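WARN no homologs supplied; continuing
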Amino acid sequence: MLTYITRRILYSIPVLVISSFLSFMFVSLAGDPTANLRQNPRVSQLTLHHLQHQYHLDTSIPVRYWYWLQDVFTHKLGVSLITLQPVWPDIQRTLGHTAQVVITAEIIALILGVAVGIYSAVRQYSVFDYTFTTVSFVGFAMPTFWLALLLQILFVDIYLKWNVRIFYTSQLNSSGSATWSLDRLQHIALPVATLTIISFALYSRYMRASMLDVINTDYVRTARAKGLSQRKVIMRHVFRNALIPLVTITALNFGAVLSGAIVTETVFSLDGIGFYFVNKLQQLDVYAIMAYLMVTSVIIIIANLVADVLYGYLDPRIRYD
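OK structure emitted
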């Protein structure tokens, strides 16, 4: 197992290098990062020339990429071109807020999706199955931004009509660390609900389909013929094997959830890494944008690595050594 993990990590290095260079090139070609400074009458041409030379903006893209790659390891993802401050403290702060929202939403969506998927498969074509099939289709068809706006409008109306503050609809307090508190729960509840509903629709449908595939296999019929109870057949023989496709889709969906967090955090003005990315993209802050892309790339690679390790645990026939 250790050999497999090491090999996967080594394979991921060239993938990160190639993807980071392509991202750096496209972001650099998107515009001039000093355009906002040029419009400021207080910034002299001498200052602009100094900044361009200091951050190698007057060189070619491969040369700039090489200097940025050095900053990644020596200065923790480099320095912002707009604020002239290190990028890492902002990434660390916003990533903590996003982690709270995304991990909480994924845990709730997985628990509910697995439970509903199992029961829908066991009670196939029942009222419960038809009801949650409809709910899942609605969740699939619902855009993330529309659901976020809908929840925001709903709880704003509740506050204005009855003067009852249940959840906050914007402006997470970012002055402190990402610690749990009642105020923080009230701020992240709606973003968590938005991402949970979208992911739940996906997980429940995949779990139901996977359960139905395994239930109809020969070894499950043999287990029932031996006299095992329905509960033991489902939990011992069906559930574990049905989790394998769900692990795959969960790992692949993690990147989609991070991209969905960009929209959700923007709608709710949540001080997360997605909201940070949108602001830096508008400013064409190349180093800050690249810091976001690198961090999210590493997270997605780790998520897929964890999924591959779980395959070996769920299916004893899989061997990595």
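The chain has two domains: 20-74, 89-314.
OK
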